[in-house]
Please model this.
Amino acid sequence: MENRADLLLESYFANSLTREEANELKTLADADPAVAAEIKFQRSVAASVRARNLSGGIQNPTWKEAIHPPFPGKALKVSMWPRLAYAAAATLALLIVAYVFLTPPDIQMVVAENTRDYPNKMAFKSLGEEAETVSPEVIRAFEQYDQKNYRAAAEALATIVANSPDRMDYRFYQGVSLVQAGQYQAAVEALAVVVNTQSEQKTAAMYYLGLACAATGDKECAKQQLNAYLASPEGVTYKKQAQTVLDAL
Amino acid sequence: MNGKQNELEDFRNYPNKVTTGIYGKCRPKFIGWGKENTRTSAHDLDDIFQNAVIIMVLNIESGRLTELAGTLCTYLFGIGKNLIQAFRRKQGRIGLPGDDLFPITKETDPGAEAQLIAEQEDALLWAKVDALGEPCRSLLILTYREGLNSQEIADVLGYASPEVVRQLRKRCLDKLRK
Model:
């Protein structure tokens, strides 16, 4: 393959191809089967690395363990200790009041308090993925999702998932919507499929499935999923929430 | 040995202590900076920072990072900036000219069986990538998953030039073809 095609292909995978360059690459691919074959091969490589992470390349087990991020705020500056002492005293007082006046919160309350939004990343095309034209139904479903109309989003996504059962990304957002809408049993059914795949959303799905399992009273499932999320190097964003729910189980 | 090199030595001897410092002090700075200067969400910056830490460890392990020009935090910022740059290009990919010329869509809905076959092919190819080990593994993930160009990969992995990265990637791909 000519060097020019190599450079254009690099730009393609780095998402910096201009329209003129795209035309040029297409012309090269049409004219030279070797270029077309190279594009196909590199796309297959892109598809194979899509759901993988960099941390698997670290050989030293101690170092691999050390890069599990602690909870935000776990590493405190020395100068923060006085403030921490005040906060601890206030927390203790609050706990005493809560102990006296309140009954312990039920697990669904803990789940609700520790459910966080998941941003809509559908617009971000990963390399090697399909540059597809989505249907108006999909657009509308994700508009509902973006507006946090989770019940409507879940309903719209249910139809879309039924029509595209292999699309784990749709199924994931359906599961998140169901968790946000408090429809936990349905969320378990949607997300249980996603965590058993190598989809990009697998790790986040563990967190949401853990929440849904906890809310339905399936403690074993909840512990398994939340622990798996915490053990994953990619399980960063919801670490604090996952641990809080685990502690409440 | 100066203080900066001590940070590397400390990491080798007390990795947990050093990473606790990194996550406690450097990560909030990075996320704050990223939110202020790039239109990237804290959620995504969190992921990007984590990738920067992993790359730092890979570089130490491979021997590519033996000296620091600044602190470890400065070093992580350098990696993170390249990752943000690639991430933002990826975000903007929709609507970029070129996609319509290279539709990678499945021709039709492939159905469950075809999907299963595709997943098996991906898994087989990944097993070959994984078996290549470092640096091919990281280089291919950075190229095809994170969308870094050769200059950015040279910067984050500590290679002399983008040309070195291109040659290395070519060798990795050639091994995969066998």
About this structure: Chain B touches chain A through 77 residues (CB under 8 Å). Helices of chain B lie at 3-13, 15-37, 42-62, 72-91, 111-132, 136-144, 150-157, 162-177. Chain B is about 75% helix and 0% strand. Confidence is low (pLDDT under 50) at residues 94-98, 103-108 of chain B.
